[in-house]
Amino acid sequence: MDRVVIVFFDAGGGHRAAAASLAEAIRRQQRPWTVETINLDDILESIDPLYRTLRIRGAKLYNWTLENDWGWTVSSAPAIPIMHGVIRLLHSRQVALLRRAWKRLRPRLVVSVVPHYNRALLESLHAEFPAAEMVTILTDIADFPPHFWVEPQDQHFICGSDFAVRQAQALTGAPDHVWRVSGMMIHPRFYDPISEDRSAHLHQLGLDPGLPTGLVSYGGYGSAQMLDVAEAFQKSNCPLQLIFLCGRNRKLAVKLRSRFPSPRFHVHGFAGNVARFMAVCDFFIGKPGPASVSEALAMRLPVIVVGGRRTMAQERYNVQWIRRRGVGIAVGNVKEMPDAAMRILAPEARTSALRQIDTLKNRATFEVLDILQRIIDTGRPPLWRDRRFSNGHAS
Description:
- With 395 residues, the chain is α/β, with parallel strands linked by helices.
- Helix content is 46%, strand content 14%.
- The chain folds into two domains: 2-186 and 362-389, Glycogen Phosphorylase B (Rossmann fold), CATH 3.40.50; 194-358, Glycogen Phosphorylase B (Rossmann fold, 3-Layer(aba) Sandwich).
């Protein structure tokens, strides 16, 4: 049985979530593969400069900055080349550690859902198993070159937008290595039918079933920006209510409950099934992260995001994509969100947004499995040209 190894890391929650989504989809479809997920942070911990000096993993520090809004989002673009410089300095040691992992795992196919490290992943893999294949699944709607997602090397790339396909083709010069799917991978549960009664669930949360409801989520680690969202809506007195999902950020949940004890706010910590909360909502508020936005759109929720200097560098294209596709509203700052919510709830605007959302038809999670099977079975046909893996829209 072929062994498929999925590589993720813990910088942000999206990469771990992508790995879990892929593993669950493989399990549900009972693909004839032995599947293992590995955390790149575990493998590279011994050479992580922050861990060696402060006993704190770089990924953990990154997540702390997101949770507490320490300015990383503003400085992310100039910081990325510095980070890439450190990665290059450690490249040979990364390769050595990864070779040990491949010797133990003996993969037929390695699937990376991480940026930055794909050069080391491929070099180490082919040093041990030259016939093994490697696939990188972009969990962003677009690449942020250079050396972010796509490297000009002998591997496969799976892209969820036409723009990302063009970027990958230009960087690799090998269109038969670039594969197109209809969007971002999301957990299979977002395609499951939900039969729960909306009114009963909202009553259970202490909310009014008669009011429009928004979901506020800034990813698995939350963000201090959610306090600004709560303040903006409390001051606005909009006739709607909000569910705040704080993820693993317990301090944020405590602050929201103590500072904004409103009967129209429900504060929740980590949600194992976000789809269950989205099913009772009418719109979504959050950062323009590809995973959260894609999950909301799969649940037919128009999205409201902030697009500006505080948007992370690799997520800035997502703001353009949301505007161009007409699936939500991008505002300049959090203070504009209440007005944006009322606009998106207006009947004509909501109907238009839902019509655009329905054109997306994102089935990427399942399309990826067919691509992986074809790579294992037959090598590298130019699948990016296959219309079955395209939603028919420029994006």
